[in-house]
């Protein structure tokens, strides 16, 4: 049994997945309901029905819930999501509360070997975290991750850690995240798969283990979604046209011998197909290195937006482009 790990997924309707998938697992970036109370002051994703089976033609083996959108419509929609997953025998991990350890680990069998799946979400993504009694995402806390890995070492043949982290739209990981990922490998993880940046990020091999810092959007359509709920109403609508980088992703494959390979995909607004894409290899050596790259990226992004919609820039925009305060 081959297992395919997919990137971020948000389905607002049925799409065509024109890829042969065996058992598959993805980051469920939205609750499967919008019937609860919306989270305040953010972009709120959600959908009912789920459109998962309609798009993939079969249900996933498991989904990662450790992300910054799973609680976008509060406790009611979270429970609706859990009910749907359990009714359809879909495993899940990475969200819950401290009492159930955020539903970590999720245990699956592959060729008579036991695999542990663990999911965590970085505070930088602004999630709603679970507490002692309130449900939410599992925090990316190294002490918690080390504790969870240590508990699984003697019971599992392979440990996979899913991390929701990184700066959005940036193709390279933060130096602090590189340090954390390597520590997690040192704790005993066999594979790290990252999400959240919405673009493909670098991949490296550290101490013989693969780290995919970000595998991109497997399927994320253009957005026109409510945002900035103030407790009474949504004040804005968030619109985003996905660019080519947002449409590319990596599928991480784990075969029966627990050997890891990967392939890349492209989403063209209606279907997902296999398409060759280079995965970045560069890693910033320190914070200065990363900030230099980020500064160049920001200028290129501003220039790109200006060329798409030319207009006389404001004094504030000019100062921002020139790096002046």
CATH architecture of the largest domain: 4-Layer Sandwich
CATH topology of the largest domain: Purple Acid Phosphatase, chain A, domain 2
Instruction: Please state roughly what percent of the residues sit in beta strands, choosing from under 5%, 5-15%, 15-25%, 25-35%, 35-45% or over 45%.
Output: 25-35%
Q: What is the count of DSSP helices, taking H or I runs of 4+ residues?
A: 6
Biggest pleated sheet: 9 strands, mixed
CATH class category label of the largest domain: Alpha Beta
The CA-CA distance between the termini, in Å, is: 56 Å
pLDDT < 50 runs, ≥5 residues: none
Portion of residues in helices? 10-25%
Look at the structure and give the mean pLDDT: 93
Radius of gyration from the alpha-carbon trace, in angstroms: 19 Å
What's the number of extended β-strand segments?
19
| Domain module count | 2
Notes on the protein architecture:
- The chain is of the alpha/beta class and 325 residues long.
- The protein has two domains: 3-279, Purple Acid Phosphatase, chain A, domain 2 (4-Layer Sandwich); 285-325.
- The protein is 22% helix and 29% strand.
- It is built from six helices and 19 strands.
- The strands form four sheets. Strands 1, 2, 3, 4, 5, 14, 17, 18 and 19 form a nine-stranded mixed sheet that branches. It has a six-stranded mixed sheet with strand order 7-8-10-11-13-12, covered by helices on one side.
- α2 (74-87) links the parallel β4 (62-64) and β5.
- α3 (142-152) runs parallel beside α4 (175-187).
- The longest helix is centred in the C-terminal third of the chain and has 22 residues, at 287-308.
- The protein is globular, with a radius of gyration of 19 Å.
- The mean pLDDT is 93.
